[in-house]
From TrEMBL:
It is found in: Cell junction, Adherens junction; Cell junction, Tight junction; Membrane. It holds the Pfam family SH3_1. This is MAGUK p55 subfamily member 7. Its main location: other.
């Protein structure tokens, strides 16, 4: 074996020596194939990791601090007894007073307890029944107190193996760094899990406290390091994982209320994000439905009433009689220079007392249908063979005058208006209780459409029932899009609340979708 030049001799670490070996051996290697083998062998990541661990342990062995003595409390008692027999001057009195203080005695007692303990790492004994072929098995011992393990498992559909599905950020498994997504679980505390369902294994883990030993076949996949989440979101709905049938593990779920601020810790799973409450000292994350998954679930829910496409004459398309038009009128006349409304389009003929661009913008049926095809309408409908609709340009026209556009739309339209261009603040005007409706609207009348002549008639009990039912369904279907809900129990009170809300929009900061911050 040829002599090897190691540079600075014993000062060179084993890791540096390992890295230099292939170059030092190159002149003595006969073939390129052997040289390639040497480079591959000494460049193996696992070998480098083992060498690094060896050097860390060697450093720890040399630098490991040891206590000067193990009986500081006894020494202090002996010293105090010795001083009692000496002439008492001011220094001795002060020292005796210090040594007799409870906090000093407690400190010395803690010192002795720590000094007598052995803090070297203790590895669990290797099981005797490991097969020779299982050279990749890992035995892991984690200490779990009352907190969850912080990992979810699933059964691989092809192999039937129990594998780690996800690691919860900040949980016990994540902090250990020993368990990874894709690892195959073989045993828990000596109990084989091959024939068990994931629910049974979760139950075993839930009942286990203290040290838990896992037998694992490591995944061959290399995980990419994840950065701590810096995205914060404002919850648009209440969520209770115990009521969610779709969540893969209810115990791993995170409950929250509408309006809570959540920090997103991981979006690795397109269906289930990991999050924690902003400002929570507990680092452990929990599962929440992703934005895409939640929107998809909402879209699949069938509404109990017709909400799209709307027709002008259909009472059931919106809660008529809730006082929305009156509130909008009062807000508009309170400051006509600051608030504005759109002018709708229609294909019906202009009446003698009407002016084009005032009551309506009158256009041909062909042009209306062309604009519909070109997505120029926010919403539209048909009534008595004529089209009516609100165009996007009519909203832009109000905004161009530097006014706040007061827009009354169907709830399904709100999602399409939530864009960087319009930046809407959505207020849902909700009817009061049915008892209050009967009381406040007993002398009122309802008009099915502005184009019906003499169609006003008193509210019926069926109208009140429809208003309550429609409002409940709208809130259930689209409540996550509402920035504020105002109950119109009293018109004056509701208007004051509405006006205060608009005033605050001018002066206070509000949460908006992150997409609005980028042009």
């Amino acid at each position: 074996m040829p002599a090897l030049s190691t540079g600075s001799g014993s000062d060179t670490g084993l890791y540096e020596l390992l890295a230099a070996l292939p170059g030092q051996l190159q002149p003595h290697v006969d073939s390129q194939e052997d040289l390639t083998f040497l480079w591959d062998m000494f460049g193996e990541k696992s070998l480098h990791s083992l060498v690094k661990i060896h050097e860390k342990l060697h450093y720890y062995e040399k630098q490991n601090p040891v206590p000067i003595l193990h009986g500081a409390a006894v020494l202090a008692d002996d010293l105090a007894e010795e001083l009692q027999n000496k002439p008492l001057n001011s220094e001795i009195r002060e020292l005796l007073k210090l040594l007799s203080k409870p906090n000093v005695k407690a400190l010395l007692s803690v010192h002795d307890t720590v000094a007598q303990k052995n803090y070297d790492p203790v590895l669990p004994p290797m099981p005797d029944d490991i097969d020779d072929e299982e050279d990749s098995v890992k035995i892991i011992r984690l200490v779990k107190n009352r907190e969850p393990l912080g990992a979810t498992i699933k059964k691989d559909e092809q192999t039937g193996a129990i594998v780690v599905a996800r690691i919860m950020r900040g949980g016990a498994a994540d902090r250990s760094g020993l368990i990874h997504v894709g690892d195959e679980l073989r045993e828990v505390n000596g109990i084989p899990v091959e024939d068990k369902r994931p629910e049974e294994i979760i139950q075993i883990l839930a009942q286990s406290q203290g040290a838990i030993t896992f037998k694992i076949i490591p995944s061959i996949k290399e995980e990419t390091p994840s950065k701590e989440g810096k995205m914060f979101i404002k919850a648009l709905f209440d969520y209770n994982p115990n009521e969610d049938k779709a969540i893969p593990c209810k115990e791993a779920g995170l409950s929250f209320k509408k309006g809570d601020i959540l920090q997103i810790m991981s979006q690795d799973d397109a269906t289930w994000w990991q999050a924690k409450h902003a400002g929570d000292a507990n680092p452990r994350a929990g599962l929440i439905p992703s934005k895409h998954f939640q929107e998809r679930r909402l879209a699949l829910r069938r509404p109990e009433i017709l909400v799209q496409p709307f027709k002008v004459s259909s009472r059931k398309s919106c809660p008529v009689g809730v006082g929305l038009n009156e509130l909008k009128r009062k807000l508009l006349i309170s400051d006509t220079q600051h608030y504005g409304v759109t002018v709708p389009h229609t294909t019906r003929a202009k009446r003698s007392q009407e002016s084009d661009g005032v009551e309506y913008i009158f256009i041909s049926k062909h042009l209306f249908e062309t604009d519909v095809q070109n997505n120029k309408f926010i919403e539209y409908g048909e009534y008595k063979n004529n089209y009516y609709g609100t165009s996007i340009d009519s909203v832009r026209s109000v905004l161009a005058k530097n006014k706040v556009c007061l827009l009354d739309v169907q709830p399904h339209t709100v999602k399409h208006l939530r864009t960087l261009e319009f930046k809407p603040y959505v207020i849902f005007i909700k009817p009061p209780s049915i008892e209050r409706l009967r009381e406040t609207r007993k002398n009122a009348k309802i008009i099915s459409s502005r184009d019906d002549q003499g169609a006003a008639k008193p509210f019926t009990e069926e109208d009140f029932q429809d208003m309550i039912k429609s409002a409940q369904i709208m809130e259930n279907q689209y409540g996550h899009l509402f920035d504020k809900i105002i109950v119109n129990d009293d018109l004056t009170v509701a208007f004051n609340e509405l006006k205060t809300t608009f005033d605050k929009l001018e002066t206070e900061a509000h949460w908006v979708p992150v997409s609005w911050l980028h042009s």
